[in-house]
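Final report, Chapter 2: Outcomes

The project's central promise was a pipeline that accepts a single protein chain and returns its three-dimensional structure in a standardized token representation, suitable for archiving and comparison. That pipeline is now operational. To close this chapter, we reproduce one record exactly as it appears in the project archive, with the input sequence first and the structure output second.
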Amino acid sequence: RAASGGLAGSSPGPTPLPFLGNYLQLNTEQIYDSLMKISERYGPVFTVHLGPRRVVVLCGYDAVKEALVDQAEEFSGRGEQATFDRLFKGYASRRRRASSLRHSEARFPSQTGISPPSSLSPSNSHLSLNPPHPAGAIIDPTFFLSRTVSDVIKPIVFGDRFDYENKELLSLLRMMKGSLAFTATSTGQLYEMFYSVMNHLPGPQQQVFKELQGLEDFIAKKVEHNQRTLDPNSPRDFIDSFLIRMQEEKKNPNTAFCMKNLVLTTLNLFFAGTETFSMTLRYGFLLLMKHPDVEAKVHEEIDRDQAKMSYTEAVIHEI
């Protein structure tokens, strides 16, 4: 979201056309290259119009630091993302998520027996894939990492775990991955620019909407189950804690603790937590593959002393 004044207030940019904005100057299949080309003319901070939407683009370390560090409060908001805004409709905002978590009971994680997946246990510094793959085989770690991350997040949100080969879990992960992948496609970029029109047109975006609705329906069923089996004195997970808070706030007409917010906040926690973290892990492993000397030092430090891993922590912060 562009802040008023400062970096955003006076940023130059190419002249937009009515409704189309700067669409004709952008290649939706290579949006990054298009933006970098524009920055060569207008500098590290410039404005483009993605359809009718005004967007301020920051290029380079200095510009990003000024925005996210020096002017952190002004740039702390999140701009529109049409694909997901259609589902969330203003519910499950960051402020509301923080409020929900802050008021939730803190005791339920210890009751769920949360522990790291065995493949990530301290005694096993190598990731083990099951079934094993022969040496030199090409492995796509996407779903393995998503399953691993969801195994940590799910007991907090839902209070139980899926088995790694659970078909329902694999289906959910595929739906999440598919909806995120759509946003990076040329059609996804077009939808972000012209969603008011493309909402009513056939195309891949309609399948994404079905998948997102499928995710919401799954969460709604989990919430319904928790409602039927709720013990206010013994919350099992985030959903239980939210339901208890709903009961406490039922006479408050301005409360954020309502059923719609519960479903979409839970979805947001599971969806965003699983995919964004597993994506970060994938990029981290890619970086370590490109820098085997760094990987070797990290591995050595983990094997030597897990209580003091300053080098590993520095690598994680860099990632």
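Archive annotation: Strands lie at 45-50, 53-58.
This record, like all others produced under the grant, will remain available to the consortium after the project formally closes.
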